[in-house]
Structures are given as structure tokens and as C-alpha cells.
Automatic annotation (TrEMBL), chain A:
<dbReference type="GO" id="GO:0016020">
    <property type="term" value="C:membrane"/>
</dbReference>
<protein>
    <submittedName>
        <fullName>Divalent cation transporter domain-containing protein</fullName>
    </submittedName>
</protein>
<keyword id="KW-0472">Membrane</keyword>
<feature type="transmembrane region" description="Helical">
    <location>
        <begin position="89"/>
        <end position="113"/>
    </location>
</feature>
<dbReference type="Pfam" id="PF01769">
    <property type="entry name" value="MgtE"/>
</dbReference>
<feature type="domain" description="SLC41A/MgtE integral membrane">
    <location>
        <begin position="49"/>
        <end position="181"/>
    </location>
</feature>
<dbReference type="InterPro" id="IPR006667">
    <property type="entry name" value="SLC41_membr_dom"/>
</dbReference>
<dbReference type="InterPro" id="IPR045349">
    <property type="entry name" value="SLC41A1-3"/>
</dbReference>
<keyword id="KW-0812">Transmembrane</keyword>
UniProtKB/TrEMBL annotation, chain B:
<dbReference type="GO" id="GO:0008324">
    <property type="term" value="F:monoatomic cation transmembrane transporter activity"/>
</dbReference>
<protein>
    <submittedName>
        <fullName>Divalent cation transporter</fullName>
    </submittedName>
</protein>
<feature type="transmembrane region" description="Helical">
    <location>
        <begin position="125"/>
        <end position="149"/>
    </location>
</feature>
<keyword id="KW-1133">Transmembrane helix</keyword>
<dbReference type="InterPro" id="IPR036739">
    <property type="entry name" value="SLC41_membr_dom_sf"/>
</dbReference>
<dbReference type="GO" id="GO:0016020">
    <property type="term" value="C:membrane"/>
</dbReference>
<comment type="similarity">
    <text>Belongs to the SLC41A transporter family.</text>
</comment>
<feature type="transmembrane region" description="Helical">
    <location>
        <begin position="85"/>
        <end position="113"/>
    </location>
</feature>
<keyword id="KW-0813">Transport</keyword>
Amino acid sequence: MTVRDVAVEAYREALPALSASLVGGLVAGVVLGGMRAELRAVPGLLVLVPALLATRGNVYGSLGARVATALHQGLIEPRVTAGDDRLQAAAAAALANGVLTSTFAAVAAFFLLTLLGSKVAPLPILVGVAIVAGLLSGIVLTAVVVTVVFAGYRRGRNPDTLVGPIVTTTGDVFGILFLLIAVRTVLAIAGVF
Amino acid sequence: MPTEWTVRAISRAMLPVLLVLTLVELGSGLVLGSFESKLLRYPSLLVLVPVTIGTAGNLGSILAARLSTSFHLGTLSFSPADDELAGNAIATFALAVTMFPVIGFGAWVLAALVSGGATLAAQTVILVALTSGTILAVLAVAVTLTATYAAYQFGLDPDDVVIPVVTNVCDVLGVVVLFGVVQVLV
């Protein structure tokens, strides 16, 4: 293949997935743009955003890749109702790792910002937001990733090529959406006490 | 050897990597925090943040996945004259140059419709997006080639190592480049 052929093929193959994640990223951006009051109310929250979004991508991308490989190898049935032990373990591990990593991000951000002398919200607020957001987005992303990979596989699609675009698109949208819900919930609870 | 499918085994394989990547991502969070007041003043720039990070990471991860497949198939050589390498690098650049103006325009329209707040001119937001995207494409190619080459030198499977490293490094670069471009243009 000539350079031109390679470039044209690579461009065509990447465009649909990139376009899907572009739409997801813009939707996430609009939600973030609508969160300005919360970002002002919780200093340090914006610092957490890249880490939280990346955690969603890393954890649930890895879950999707694992499920896709297992389907290729015939290790699991492409049915959620099969109640496979291994699938449940993989989902539980993803959820646990997602919540743990989000919590770690909140604690590390708090200490980094304190060290730098920047304004930062109280530790319980940041940790609370990270846990609630990690849990809610984790449950939804696990369901979405497993369901879509299974459905795609049953329709004869290669699950490997489905995982990336699904996770980046839904990860951004649900990541930010549940962050907003988490901040509002935690601020409401903190307001009561 | 594949990881056993238990919560403990999966966590043991993943958590250390996740925690290190989180620290790296917090670095980009700090950069974001350093121009927070500008982002909060102009919602169209805030709308750009997730999509710029995401697209930069995607450009890198798609290139990394393609290069590691070529590498496994034995069709890749690390020479500037290599067709596979040059073609993929050109495609990454072309994707950035076509996607980022759309991203900029989309962010401007959505911010104007939904977010309110102070508005920047559409051409400013498009220029910020396109400039960031062009720089990011060059960086994504450089980072991916370096990471793939390093994995090859150390005898690691590029599939395991390169994609997470490239995606997260490109995420961080996305924020850093956006910061630099906004400082200059807005």
C-alpha cells in the first residue's frame, strides 16, 4: 500500500468513532458549562474533572476489552441473564476500582491544592462527590458496556472495535452528568448539617 | 498470562496503574485550575474542555492501536520512509484538521444556546479549537511513536502498555495545549 492508501484507509476507519465521541464530548461540555455555579461553590472540583473522566475511560475501557476478549475465546455467553460468575466478578472489580480510584483522586487533589496554597473545598465534600459520582457512573457504564458489547457480538460485530467508541462517548457524558448530580446531592446534604 | 477473573486478581493488575494515571491526570487538572477564572467567564471555552481532552486521547489511542496491529503483523518499521508510519501520521493530522473546527463551532453554538454567560466571537472559538487540534495531532503522533518504539525496545506487548499510556498522556497534553492556546488567543 502507498502512503496515500494507508492514510485514506486510516482516516475512513477512524472518522465514525471520532465523530461519535465528538458528539459525546460536546454534550459533556455543555453539562460542564452549565455547572459553573457548582464549580464556583466547590473549589478544586475542576481540578478533579480530568482525573475522574480518565478513570471512567480506563476502568470501563478495560472491562469492555476484557469482555470482548472473553467473547472471542468463548469463555462467556453473550447474555446478561446467564449470570456468569466471572462476568459478575469483572463488573464488581471494575466498580470497586472505579470508586477507589475516584476517592484517591479526591484525596490527592485536596492535599495537592492545600500544599500549593490554593482555595479548596473541605475534604469530605470532595470525597463525597467522588464516591457518589464514581458509584452512579460506574453502575450505568457497566450496564451500558456489557449490554452493547453483547448485543453487538450477537449481531456479528467485532466487540473489539465497539468498546473504544462506546466507552469514550458514554464515559464522558455519564461521567460529567453524574458528577453534576453528585455535587448537587453532596451540597444539599452538607447544607442540612 | 491473562488475568484470572476474580475481583482480587483484576484489582491487583489494575489498581497500581490506575493510581499512577490518576496522579498524571491531576497534573492536567492543576493546569485547568490555573485558568479556571477564564473558563468560568467564557462558557464556550469550558464546553471545549472535555471534547478537546477526549479527541486528543482518541487520536492517540486510534493511532496506537493501528501501529501496534501493524507491529504484530510485522508490517511496521521505525523509519520515516515507512509507508505504514507516514500514512497513519498523515491520517491523524488530517483527522485533527477536519474535526477540530467542527468542535470549535459546536462548542460556540452550544454555549451560546444553552450556557449563557459572556460570549466570545465564533471565529475565536474555532481558531482556538483548530490551533489546539493541529498542535495536538503533531504531539499525538510523536508520543505514540515514542511509546510504541519504547515498548518494542523493552520487549513489551504494545497492546497492553502503549494504549493506556498514550491515551492518558494525550489527555494531559490536551489540557496543556488548550491552556497555552487560550493564553495566547483569548
